[in-house]
Design goal:
By secondary structure, the chain is mainly α. The chain has two domains: about 45 residues; about 35 residues. It has three helices and no strands. It starts with a helix and ends with a helix.
């Protein structure tokens, strides 16, 4: 049942689409996913290295202060990202009108 529905969906969704464009899109998406995986692995390695360096040089005596600074930085970053996303969405709405 599921494969029949899937085949029908694919047939009707991509009915007027050039197969070459679909291949280009899948290649583009594969490159994006590969890039995301590389960035994810690199960020884990960087985060782990920085964590070890902080433990080595600062020690465990300033954990509360570092937690507060981290929370403040995270909130600031999220506010900036939210603002930029809202600006991008508003720009898309004005471009369509």
């Amino acid at each position: 049942m599921c494969t029949i529905r899937h085949n029908w969906l694919v047939r009707h969704t991509f009915k007027h689409t050039n197969p070459y464009l679909l291949t280009m899109q899948s290649t583009r998406f594969a490159k994006i996913i590969l890039g995301e995986m590389i960035v994810l692995i690199a960020s884990v390695l960087i985060f782990r290295s920085l964590w070890t360096l902080l433990d080595q040089y600062i020690g465990y005596s300033y954990l509360i202060e570092m937690l507060v600074i981290g929370i403040i930085l995270a909130i600031t970053g999220l506010i900036l990202l939210n603002h930029e996303v809202n600006c991008e969405i508003e720009g898309d709405k004005t471009a369509k009108n």
